[in-house]
Design brief:
5 helices; mainly alpha
Length: 118
């Protein structure tokens, strides 16, 4: 297989950039190596929005880039931080995927997918 899908490439780039953003954010916000079990609301919001955007069809397949970038923020935080936020964002992304692809059997979504070329 000589051709790599641009969706995978965009998702990988978004995840790497989001990881760097999350690492920078966590080192600036938390000076101590570990913290009490607290949930960072900004990172949780970014993870949830990433899980939602990842499952929405956007022009030029920007949903992969933006969604993976936002999910990459809790993924890239320093050790001991961002675990709960990452789990919540993965659960929400999975639930939305199940709702769209298995429970919501609509011709409209299939027409949109064919129009986008995915």
């Amino acid at each position: 297989m000589d051709v790599i899908s641009y969706n995978i490439l965009l998702g990988t780039i978004g995840l790497i950039v989001g990881g760097f953003i999350g690492l920078n954010y966590s080192y600036n916000k938390y000076p101590m190596p570990y913290t009490k079990d607290t949930i960072d609301k900004k990172v949780l919001t970014a993870g949830i929005m990433g899980g939602i955007i990842l499952n929405i069809l956007l022009p030029f397949n920007l949903n992969y880039l933006i969604g993976c970038l936002l999910i990459g923020i809790p993924f890239g935080m320093r050790p001991g931080y961002g675990r709960i936020e990452l789990y919540v964002s993965f659960i929400i992304a999975s639930l939305i995927y199940i709702l769209i692809h298995f429970l919501w059997k609509s011709d409209t979504y299939e027409v949109l997918q064919q129009r986008e070329g995915t």
